[in-house]
TrEMBL record:
Any single GO CC term annotated in Swiss-Prot or TrEMBL for this entry: cytoplasm
EC number: 2.8.2.-
Listed PANTHER family: SULFOTRANSFERASE SULT (PTHR11783)
Protein name, UniProt field: Sulfotransferase
């Protein structure tokens, strides 16, 4: 038997926006514990005491094994900033040559606005037993840097200190705001 090396596309998002998004997801989901306070939730998030475990451990584990796979690391922020370039990067990684019309279609359908309006992508197809639609939507804002609207100065300082301790040995860069 011939086994081809697996291709892994790892999409990461800056963890401050992940924390904010996940906080809202918790309050929108009927199957996760409702979170009254962002302060309490942020503590749980930093220490991996949330559904799915630790963001930090997940990204560090995948990064430490990247040499075992044909591995493409891409960020959500890159895709928001320039979806066309991201589509081309992914298609190149997959060894697929896409014509301009196909790339245009992927970019159009992959835009946040169109994904938010697509029942296949926005969770409309899931039963209301899973999501409380009156509390929000599966695809909320899609903004880079929205954490600045939720984090206090104290949250940011605490997060940064925790982040740099946990991630000091991982040479990954994140876009924290598209104004950077």
């Amino acid at each position: 038997f011939y086994f081809k090396e697996p291709l892994v596309i790892y999409v990461a998002r800056n963890p401050k926006d992940v924390a904010v998004s996940f906080f809202h997801f918790h309050n929108f989901s009927n199957f996760l514990e409702n979170q009254e306070s962002f302060d309490d939730f942020l503590n749980k998030f930093l220490h991996g005491n949330v559904f799915g475990s630790s963001w930090f451990d997940h990204i560090k584990d995948w990064y430490s094994h990247k040499h075992e796979f044909d591995f493409l690391y891409i960020t959500y922020e890159e895709m928001i900033k320039d979806l066309r370039s991201s589509v081309l990067k992914i298609s190149h990684f997959l060894g697929k040559k896409l014509d301009d019309k196909t790339v245009d279609m992927i970019v159009e359908n992959g835009s946040f606005k169109n994904m938010k309006n697509n029942p296949v992508a926005n969770s409309e197809r899931f039963s209301s037993e899973y999501f409380e639609r009156s509390k929000g939507s599966f695809l909320r804002k899609g903004k880079v840097g929205d954490w600045k609207n939720i984090f206090t100065v104290a949250h940011n300082e605490k997060f940064d200190e925790f982040y740099w301790k946990k991630m000091k040995d991982v040479p990954l860069d994140f876009i924290w705001d598209l104004c950077e």
